[in-house]
Amino acid sequence: MHQSEQTTTSSQPAQRWSRQQIDALFAKPFMDLVFEAQQVHRQHFKPNQVQVSTLLSIKTGACPEDCKYCPQSARYDTGLEKERLMQVETVLEAAQRAKAIGSTRFCMGAAWRNPKDRDMPYIIKMIEGVRELGMETCMTLGMLSPQQAMVLKEAGLDYYNHNLDTSAEFYDQIITTRTYADRLNTLDSVRQSGMKVCSGGIVGMGEDASDRTGLLLQLANLEQPPESVPINMLVKVAGTPMADAEDLDPFDFIRCIAVARIVMPGSHVRLSAGREDMNEQMQALCFMAGANSIFYGEKLLTTGNPDAERDQMLFQRLGITPEAVEDYSDDVHQAVAEEAIERQRQPARDAELFYDAS
């Protein structure tokens, strides 16, 4: 098993990884890599618990950025209907529904380059309202100044998401309207404010293996690695430049999950976008490789996601339970799961009754 120079805990710094070390992890035989990742996972987390979040688009479309994968860019004709910033009450109603299906964290995303001062009072009310429901809060609003990060922290925001997307070397092939340094500066502003960092990337955008190494190297070697690391598989949307990207080998994706778990042992690694195109066996291997966070809900901002009932049933079959936060019980989650299983069994019981009657 690969030994870290230092144990990753909340009180100790993370190991500094080299490109050669991460390349060596990617080069391991698949079974050996997954086995190592599972061992690392069990040293830092309960083995059969998964953190569950729900993501809501609170402002959709008309984004000035040119991210080639994103249907929300105003530069691409994807047929996406633009929507203004949601009313606070509508957002809180969605948060209540998310809590009812078992989510413990509510994530809110706005298609902005950066939030404007006029938007901040509404954003603050959303954060405060979600926290009053007993849920963790996360937002992704684009780039932040240090002052904006402090405002969000003071409002009670727990996490801020700002993905690096890919390696520094491949970045300008995907985005030209903001720099890699811009993204790192926002992450620094978030960290300095005292908020927790959520940052990951997307694989399957035409990058090569060295770019996957570069992404995880950058994340793992931040002064403090992100507490939450979403690993997204590209969702190909018609109208975007990435619509015809070559399919990613599923084993390459699972390798990314496993390496992320090993190099960021204390982070939650989120199996994020792209699950709609993964079968249950692939998702199970991702959990085996150390993924311990997912999004519940039928939509991730604007793209599809398995509905909560399907996830509940998969959790039941794998023996996975949701990770609870201090002020939230998973009783509701368990009740919904049992109801989903019951509905699955009912058609067979109805058929038995029919044949008995005949």
Overview of the structural elements:
The structure is a single chain. With 358 residues, this protein is α/β, with parallel strands linked by helices. 41% of the residues lie in helices and 14% in strands. The strands form two sheets. Strands 1, 2, 3, 4, 5, 6, 7, 8, 9 and 12 form a ten-stranded parallel β-sheet that branches. α7 (209-220) runs parallel beside α8. The longest helix has 27 residues, at 331-357. It is globular and about 50 Å long. The model is unreliable at 1-12, 327-337 and 351-358 (pLDDT under 50).
Helix content: 40-55%
Individual helix count = 11
Span between termini: 62 Å
Low-pLDDT residue spans:
1-12, 327-337, 351-358
Beta-strand portion reads 5-15%
Total number of strands: 12
Overall pLDDT level: 82
Question: Taking Cα atoms only, what radius of gyration do you get, to the nearest Å?
Answer: 20 Å
- H/E element string? HHEHEHEHEHEEHEHEHEEEHEH
Biggest β-sheet strands, sense, barrel: 10 strands, parallel
Shape by Cα distribution? globular
Going by helix content, strand content and strand pairing, the class is alpha/beta
